[in-house]
Design goal:
This protein has helices at about 5-25, 35-45, 50-55, 65-75, 95-120, 125-135, 140-155; strands at about 75-80, 90-95. It has about 160 residues and is mainly α. A two-stranded antiparallel sheet has the order 1-2. The N and C termini lie far apart (about 45 Å).
Length: about 160
């Protein structure tokens, strides 16, 4: 195995382990990591159109329509016409969705603490630059950029 193959293997393993741990933490809430991410984004930045949510959400296929459909059907999200443009449909959290978004944020903090302990003393800025290089010129690079812009703006 060469260094690039080893690096790819490690990236995939870290992503899977992250998903497994977060899903384990969220299971008692009855939601998945993808659902929690959508709820947290809408709780923080919503209401958003489906397209706007898609630019912020790292979802399979890059389009969250099936995820949103399931969450609307389960009562976690709402679809409503925008107040300024009745043709525009906005998605927002229901009261139950807002509660779950906050509960998910608290549960995910356990994972962040665990990871923070693992990374203590390591060169995180260099590793971040390395990962950014892997995403350069990909659609997910734009998703990461948009999330960072919004986070810095304090939205």
């Amino acid at each position: 195995m060469d260094a690039i193959e080893d690096f790819g293997l490690l990236l995939k393993a870290v992503a899977r382990e992250t998903d497994r741990r977060i899903n384990d933490l969220l299971r008692p809430l009855g939601i998945t990591a993808s659902q929690a991410e959508a709820l947290q984004l809408l709780d923080r930045y919503g209401p958003l159109s489906l397209g706007e949510l898609g630019t912020l959400l790292i979802a399979e296929g890059g389009h969250p329509s099936r995820l949103v459909d399931r969450m609307v059907a389960s009562g976690l999200l709402r679809r409503e016409s925008a107040s300024d443009d009745r043709r525009r449909i906005e998605i927002s959290c229901s009261p139950q969705g807002r509660e779950l978004a906050r509960a998910a944020r608290e549960r995910k903090e356990t994972f962040r603490d665990w990871l923070r302990d693992r990374l203590d003393g390591l060169d995180l800025p260099s590793t971040t630059r390395l990962l950014e290089a892997c995403l350069d010129d990909t659609p997910l690079a734009e998703t990461v950029r948009e999330r960072r812009v919004r986070a810095l703006a304090g939205e």
